[in-house]
Predict the structure of GDP-L-fucose synthase.
Amino acid sequence: MPQKIFVAGHRGMVGSAILRRFAHRDDLQVVTRTRTELDLCNQAAVNKFFESERPDTVIFAAAKVGGIHVNATYPADFAYDNTMMAANAIHAAFQTGVSRFLFLGSTCIYPRMAPQPIQEDALLTSPLEETNEGYALAKIMGLKLCQYYRQQHGALFHSAMPTNLYGPGDNYHPDNSHVIPGLIRRFDDAAKENANSVTVWGSGKPRREFLHVDDLAAAVEHLLQLENPPDWVNVGTGVDLTIADLARKIADATGFEGQIVQDASKPDGTPVKCTDISRIRSTGWQPTIRLDDGLTQTVADYHHRIQSGEVRSV
Ligand code: GDP
């Protein structure tokens, strides 16, 4: 009997990368549900799904996600939806005997002023970044629930906290997206229109670390093979750059040759965010996709999706 894996959130950027990664694994039976088929915020529906489907393993890549602007504007939605989805799925998985649960969060769970590079132990040591506090609290709850179920019941429930992700199938909404897809769209439009300048939000000084989503999918597969995985582990590159430097790289990747203007009226968010990846490295995983290559590939994927009418913009 193949192992039955439920990938929650398979239509998102992360879930679809995991499905691509598992496409060649004929020892796995991957189970998915769209949001219309299964509302993860609905406890009764989630219980019913787990009771009838009985997966062996769950990869929890479902989340309400967005960039700095939507996170800061709709904190109630980000906190409520993400808390409910995590709590419903973790509890139902435990009750129906799921043998392994891998919960995916984000490095925004760490304090705003965490010492850099951020180690896993920085969790809950000082206040969170305000612009995404609701989302971060929900993800902390998911991580802690996995840790508590493992501690109290011996269930093999654990978590991975990826840094800022990018790659094929991202959300390219002009206001709601994260910085890489937001800038790819803006620079690409400007290059096509021969515009003189492109505006980048904030001061350009914040530093961020970016991981290609295919590297995360490889890390997920790796973590699922560990007999005694850490309760939670950072997944990143350990390398960061300023938003201004990132903008220059995206200008090059899209062929934009005009001026880059910073809009200081937009928020910067956390000043620096770079993870310490020694814990996952010590288990035998490391990233393989360089940012320059990943950006070139992502821009090509964006162009391909424009042509086929498949650009996600929500
Ligand atoms: P964060 O890591 O949670 O802050 O996620 P984001 O990807 O939304 O933003 C990262 C940084 O990029 C922040 O400092 C933003 O101000 C900056 N930034 C610059 N231009 C943009 C843009 O067009 N969209 C977004 N989302 N962020 C931008």
Observations:
- The first strand starts at residue 3 and ends at 8.
- The CA atoms of residues 107 and 163 lie 5 Å apart.
- The chain has a mean pLDDT of 97.
